[in-house]
């Protein structure tokens, strides 16, 4: 029952962005404020990333259950307010509230599993969580489109309320964890510095190459500010009694390696999830709904492999092989995806995506398992939140950097095929075009744009493969540390043990 409640909470965290993304055109049509559209996503992402490590530390200090319930309530309040928003400014503010709650959902789920289930048994449960992620990725766009078409865009937010109420009721009733009361003070200075540093990094990846040039004063200034904030954060964390992110956890070699691998997994996963639908719609002619369904080979492979890896880890206690194989499959999957062009069939691209999905399935939950097994039980929350945070930041960097590579390649291809003036005009809006608008273009321009997108995705996956080699190499240096909770070998009983003791 507890695991079922945690799966609902995980679904809340994963489903929201998938549903809201589908509803955004309708939201802009009703509320206006097209120029602020990106902030609807950015406000949520910023709040989630900045609050993630703080939720983890609060759980370690004051008990997991109360902190987790608070994050669910905050998420639901943000959802209700977002559904009632009357203009774009209100929606952006309420999305930030929702993001603050979302930061505690993912961390809470993983940390509570870490409290309840020893690492040796945790693999199969985390495989189930990976299945929830896949269901959210597949069902989110479909649910979002259906709700928006039949009930209105506000139900993209209201749908969270009944799901959240069920999770709240079940967790309150069936989850029993020891209560904690720490006398230590919350590390407010460290929390503020970490929040400022993370905010600067996320804004760089959000604005760089779109709102501002990468070498503009704004982006460079944000970079300098972010680095200074993080340096100050490290200095503060070395002195406070109860740091929000204890630096000693990074002295564990496995933990440091697995955070690097998690960062790279986020980098390539979010990058591929961003550009695959664009390739399918522009080059292969799929509709928006069908492009979501065409991701099924990748998502199903991820779900099946994650369940398999979790069960085998539970039975054998071995996990390093899955990280190594997963890193190799991700590299191979990105490499074969880079071979796609305008003549690639949907069946072939589906096979390529399945290879990538299998690699992600081996890595996604196994990296979290290793992170949790590498920290002491008292640091379970910050260990889980750190792994989640690095994956989130990796995703932000992946979308931004791969997006810049994609845009430059599309622009250069269009200029090469249509000439400088026509090519610049076609790609001036960020190198992306509405598929409906594309269908109305003359055949020559449509063909040029399809080749440009194919070349852009080729570069994205090629660079993604090169980056993933780092994670594959790092996996070989992991040490196979026995998972806590495994069955110890039984020794022969001594003479005293063979004689029952008096009670």
UniProtKB/TrEMBL annotation:
Alphabetical list of PROSITE patterns matching this protein: MFS
Which compartments is it annotated to reside in? Cell membrane
Q: Which UniProt keywords apply?
A: Cell membrane, Membrane, Transmembrane, Transmembrane helix, Transport
Alphabetical list of InterPro entries matching this protein = EmrB-like, MFS, MFS_dom, MFS_trans_sf
Superkingdom of origin organism: Bacteria
Residue ranges spanning the membrane: these are 37-55, 67-86, 92-113, 125-143, 155-176, 188-208, 214-236, 257-279, 291-309, 321-339, 351-371, 392-410, 460-478
Q: Where is the Major facilitator superfamily (MFS) profile domain?
A: 2-483
Topological category with respect to the lipid bilayer = Multi-pass membrane protein
User: NCBIfam families from the xrefs?
Assistant: efflux_EmrB
**Protein name, per record:** MFS transporter
**Organism from which the protein derives:** Streptomyces siderophoricus
């Amino acid at each position: 029952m507890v695991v079922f409640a945690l799966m609902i909470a995980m679904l809340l965290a994963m489903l929201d962005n998938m549903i809201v993304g589908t509803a955004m055109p309708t939201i802009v049509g009703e509320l206006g404020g097209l120029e602020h559209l990106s902030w609807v996503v950015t406000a949520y992402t910023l709040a989630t990333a900045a609050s993630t490590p703080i939720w983890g530390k609060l759980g370690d200090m004051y008990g997991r259950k109360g902190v987790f319930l608070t994050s669910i309530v905050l998420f639901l309040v943000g959802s209700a307010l977002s559904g009632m928003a009357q203009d774009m400014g209100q929606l952006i503010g309420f999305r930030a509230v929702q993001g603050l709650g979302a930061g505690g959902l993912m961390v809470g789920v993983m940390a509570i599993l870490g409290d309840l289930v020893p690492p040796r048994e945790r693999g199969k449960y985390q495989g189930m969580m990976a299945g929830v992620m896949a269901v959210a990725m597949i069902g989110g766009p479909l649910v979002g489109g259906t709700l928006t078409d039949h009930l209105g865009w506000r139900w993209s937010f209201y749908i969270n309320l009944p799901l959240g109420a069920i999770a709240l009721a079940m967790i309150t009733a069936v989850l029993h964890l020891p209560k904690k009361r720490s006398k230590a003070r919350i590390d407010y200075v460290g929390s503020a510095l970490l929040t400022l540093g993370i905010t600067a990094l996320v804004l760089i990846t959000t604005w760089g190459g779109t709102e501002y040039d990468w070498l503009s004063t704004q982006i460079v200034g944000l970079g300098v500010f972010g680095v200074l904030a993080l340096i100050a954060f490290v200095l503060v964390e070395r002195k406070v009694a109860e740091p929000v992110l204890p630096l000693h956890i990074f002295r564990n070699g496995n933990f440091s390696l697995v955070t690097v691998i998690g960062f790279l997994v986020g980098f390539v996963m979010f990058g591929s999830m961003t550009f695959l639908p664009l390739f399918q719609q522009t080059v292969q002619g799929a509709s928006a709904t069908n492009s979501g369904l065409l991701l099924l080979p990748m998502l199903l492979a991820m779900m099946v492999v994650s369940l398999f890896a979790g069960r085998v880890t539970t039975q054998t206690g071995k996990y390093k092989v899955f990280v190594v194989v997963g890193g190799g499959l991700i590299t191979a999957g990105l490499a074969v995806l880079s071979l796609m062009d305008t003549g690639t069939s949907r069946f072939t691209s589906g096979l390529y995506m399945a290879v990538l999905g299998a690699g992600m399935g081996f890595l996604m939950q196994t990296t979290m398992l290793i992170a949790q097994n590498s920290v002491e039980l008292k640091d379970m929350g910050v260990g889980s939140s750190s792994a989640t945070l690095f994956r989130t930041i990796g995703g932000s960097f992946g979308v931004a950097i791969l997006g810049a590579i994609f845009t430059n390649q599309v622009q250069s291809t269009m200029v090469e095929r249509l000439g400088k003036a026509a090519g610049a005009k076609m790609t001036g809006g960020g190198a992306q075009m509405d598929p409906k608008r594309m269908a109305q273009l003359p055949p020559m321009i449509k063909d040029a744009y399809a080749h440009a997108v194919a070349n852009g995705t080729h570069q994205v996956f090629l660079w993604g493969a090169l980056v993933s080699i780092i994670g594959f190499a790092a996996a070989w240096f992991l040490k196979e540390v026995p998972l806590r909770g495994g069955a110890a070998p039984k020794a022969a009983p001594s003479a005293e043990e063979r004689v029952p003791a008096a009670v």
